[in-house]
Protein 1
Amino acid sequence: MMVEQERECHKNYRAKARVHANVAVAKYWGKRDESLNLPLFDSVAFNVDGLITETQAHWHNDDTRDALIINGWQVPAQSMGRVERILDKIRDIKGWDKRCTLQSRNNFPLASGLASSASGSAAAAAAAAAAAGLELRESELSALARLGSGSAARSIPGGWTRWRTGHLDDGSDSFAESFAPADYWNLHVFVIQVTDSQKSVSSSECMNMCMRSPFWNVFVEESKKEADLLQQAVVQRDFASFSAGVHRNMMRLHALTMTCERPVLYFAPKSVEIIQKVLRATQAVPVCCTVDAGSNVIVICEDSACPFIKNDIIALGLPFIQTHVGNGAQIV
Ligand code: DP6
């Protein structure tokens, strides 16, 4: 204990993490445990190199409460619940009562369907754990990030990741692992910003509403098959199967949200325009697209589809980021 205390005294309890947002191709939608964000089925995603969250954590004894500042804006106390779950877990492990200040910056709009909650929670978990001097395994850090936002579990490992449902009630076996590194498959990723406004219904709220859809059970049964199929398509670099799976998975989720008692339509007119162009092209060129719970569109393609992207998608004049599959969380 003395040694531990001495070691602690030499630290300044600060660390900074850099994390990428991730985009799911076999999407997470529905929880078996809401407070632990435990999913009903496995999901598959890739990190997006060009979508970055950097978070600085500092543990201290100065204040009575934790603070989260995102792009210079202090998050109100009543909206701190998700990040508190991560910080409380660290306090539990450390057996201390310090408070944490998190300063976070994104290079992309928040809550607009670009997985900012994923990279935000993953960066908070990575920075706060490092600042506390915790040496966690990647799987433990992924499970910690999951407490803030389910999809955050997938922003900890690099490249292509699979988040396993797990079976344990405490969620310790529900974490994401990488199954292929970032440079495994030479794909281009275009993030097309259809809107920078925040989505009207949060993912967790919409998931809950969807559970009362008459199509919920069939959605879950079908979704359980997807992670295997999409993982296999990536491992085999089989663009035709990949593209078919990505479209099927996206459409099934958005079709479901439209069947809630209070229907949710995340697509904006421009999202539909892009999706239609991609669906029409997909027989001839290796391109596909996906949309999370928002309206921005992620277009994924092989080299030979770049002229199509330039002439048909970029020509729409919307802001975009051209990027590729990215690495996992880093302490910087
Ligand atoms: C459509 O991870 O934001 O992006 O666990 O409630 O925070 P919570 O939900 P969240 O849901 C993401 C939903 C999705 C699909 C996905 O990323 O797999």
Protein 2
Amino acid sequence: MFTRILIANRGEIALRIIRACREMGIQTVCVYSEEDRHASYLALANHAVCIGPAPSSESYLRADRIISAAEVYNVDAIHPGYGFLAENAQFVEQCLDSRIQFIGPSAESMRMLGDKSAAKKLARSAKVPTVPGSADLIEEDDEAVQLAKKIGYPVIVKATAGGGGRGMRIAHNEANLRSSLRQARQEADAAFKNPGIYLEKFIERPRHVEVQILGDRHGTIVHLFERDCTIQRRYQKLIEESPSPAIDSHTREELCKAAVRLCHLAKYSNAGTVEFLIDAKKNYYFIEANTRIQVEHPVTEWITGIDLIKWQIRIAAGDTLTLKQRDITQNGAAIECRINAEDPYHNFRPCPGKIETFRAPGGFGVRWDSFVGAGTTISPKYDSMIGKLVVHRPTRAEAIQCMIRCLDEFQIGPILTTIPFHREVIAHPDFVNGNVDTGFVDRNWNTNAPNPKS
Ligand code: MV4
């Protein structure tokens, strides 16, 4: 097992990884930017190293500085968390070149699944259902137009290097499609330095369900069931839960088996997620894979009792997965609300600043994964998530009641948070009945209301 790990991240996930390491008897080196120099979680790491100024391009994205710190402190491995360098295959190779273990999949698996069009192709060869669309990248606009005629409008143009909703364009007719193709290519080239685009039938009012995977470096892969991430706004997830209220046990088994098949083909190791869309007729389609630990991983930890971060570390160290698929079960219901320092009633504008009053909820089955407390200053320089409130109960109805109680108990001030918004969503009859799709929030809350202060 590793003696010392470097954590190449910040905020709640840095703290989450520090906690796992402390329980495992592994020393930690945490890197931080000048902006984060007062972060209280740094005191829980064995060493803290400043890697540059506030902009992530000058700190958390600086592979060279992170690897230097790793060499100076003689670490065995680097945990990237999520975001920043977590899905950067070149960084994985740089770690290996410096004889440092990257805690995640191989660069090869990452590249194979990171290219969305290539991942879809792999899924098809694994007999995993995919959305009807182009078999490859679109070379000529005319070929996309022909295809759209065949599969029918609306269609969606996606960037192969994209993901999470970036670089997507919906088209309702041929003229629409031609300009969408041009715009999508341009955007993809600018944002990802990769103009590759592909085409899919646009699935209307889908649900978003993803399967958690763990694979070791010896070819064993298990799934840890699904998370339902349908409740989102502008591609930002707000609430995640498991089990999904939208699928029956047959679909669940199909989905989970499909995800494992795909990961075998990608020779996948470590933690990963396979994303699906579910349409109104309960058909499921693979859309993309995430080659990292995800924000919403605690939902899966609650219902399976399995510590995903510890397994990521063990797997990277070469341990075999001793978990047996038949021993992994879905127990009860877990729900997570992402709490952001944003004003939900003014278009979710970021609301950074110093937290003066603070009381987190607690009690049976309540988990608060966060790096904040009274006295913490939330920086405007990074994303606005300040913590994840996760509850676990025997049934979904009880989990909802527990979440309402927790949201009511929460006190944070004077900064504004998404707590009151979560309170509305979670008590909405359509959410309670599991009768939602990815457009639920945008249809029911006019969060685009003009912002009087800007
Ligand atoms: C789609 C889709 C409908 N049809 N693909 C958005 C994020 C990215 N991961 C994929 N996304 C979508 N792809 C087809 N063919 C609708 C979405 C989508 C969505 C997906 C998951 C969660 C929230 C979403 C919100 C709007 C659109």
